[in-house]
Inverse folding.
């Protein structure tokens, strides 16, 4: 009888002042059992200096079930944001985070949690992101940190930081995708009724359409729908602009305002997501995967996987493929809308 696999161990670091919203996001993504839907088992533990209940805003409290010593067992450590971003975390927490980083454990901070990592010195000389309204504050109090103003989440040396609120969901889903594959992340996203794929390089906030531009917004939505069903075809910005009835320049400007990404970057993200799905669920040859997802050649697909996912399509399939079959010779199912 084969040994039962060890669940992926996730630590939620808590101390007085952590944000209830970020705690809820972490708990919803990593603390809900979805193994009946094919998601791997996670072992989420609430970790603190001791097991005394941690007070949060609004009369809420969090009861830790492990002490900081458990961080030595964690595969992933998550640090929520703070209600008061200049509150210094307890020194035992900061020291435990430093030791975890030395061990090589992946550490991720949501929103103002970047301040906690900066207090521990873990962001010195590194790139980091936080909520757009906190960028100047983080720069002022931690000048050795390179604060990026326009990203949802970024990674530097196994340390992840995310922008505000919903970007924490994006980062958690990305971490699931990185460790367990695109389908696991998509399953969790569906259960949370949230978008399964927003890249870290997307802008933090976008210009929502006003009533005067509703017609343009509808046209852009139609273009995205069209592109998702024609990923296997060559698609240039001029082609998409023509489908929207706009000039290429006007289309690119409106598209970036509506989605936070350029048309080509958005299209590349969708091609990668579609390729991941085929690699996970079929044993189609690599050239056919590349053709169906619009990369044209296996070489081009491999280059984009290396740049975006730091892996190759073959290595991705080896890590995340289910029990596969060639499947019908149809074009790939369109990925969920961004």
């Amino acid at each position: 009888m084969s040994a039962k696999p060890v669940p992926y161990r996730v630590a939620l670091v808590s101390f007085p002042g952590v944000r209830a919203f970020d705690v809820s996001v972490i708990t919803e993504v990593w603390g809900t059992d979805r193994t009946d839907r094919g998601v791997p088992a996670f072992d989420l533990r609430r970790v603190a200096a001791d097991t005394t209940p941690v007070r949060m805003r609004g009369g809420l409290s969090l009861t830790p079930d492990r002490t900081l010593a458990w961080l030595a067992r964690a595969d992933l450590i998550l640090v929520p944001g703070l209600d008061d971003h200049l509150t210094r975390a307890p020194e035992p927490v900061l020291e435990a985070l430093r030791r975890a980083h030395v061990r090589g454990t992946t550490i991720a901070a949501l929103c103002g949690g970047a301040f906690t990592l900066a207090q521990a010195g873990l962001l010195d000389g590194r790139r980091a992101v936080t909520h757009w309204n906190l960028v100047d504050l983080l720069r002022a109090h931690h000048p050795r940190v390179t604060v990026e103003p326009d990203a949802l989440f970024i990674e530097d040396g196994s340390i992840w930081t995310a922008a505000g609120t919903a970007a924490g969901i994006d980062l958690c889903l990305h971490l699931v995708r990185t460790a367990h594959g695109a389908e696991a992340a998509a399953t969790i996203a569906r259960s949370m009724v949230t978008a399964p794929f927003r890249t870290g390089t997307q802008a933090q906030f976008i210009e929502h359409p006003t009533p005067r531009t509703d017609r343009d917004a509808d046209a852009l939505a139609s273009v995205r729908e069209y592109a998702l069903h024609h990923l296997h075809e060559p698609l240039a910005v001029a082609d998409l602009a023509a489908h929207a009835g706009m000039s290429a320049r006007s289309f690119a400007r409106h598209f970036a305002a509506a989605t936070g990404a350029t048309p080509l970057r958005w299209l590349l993200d969708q091609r990668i997501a579609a390729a991941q799905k085929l690699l996970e669920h079929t044993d189609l040859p690599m050239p056919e995967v590349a053709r169906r997802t619009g990369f044209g050649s296996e070489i081009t697909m491999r280059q984009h996987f290396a740049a975006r996912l730091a892996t190759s399509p073959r290595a991705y399939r080896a890590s995340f493929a289910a029990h596969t079959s060639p499947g019908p010779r149809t074009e790939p199912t369109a990925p969920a809308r961004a």
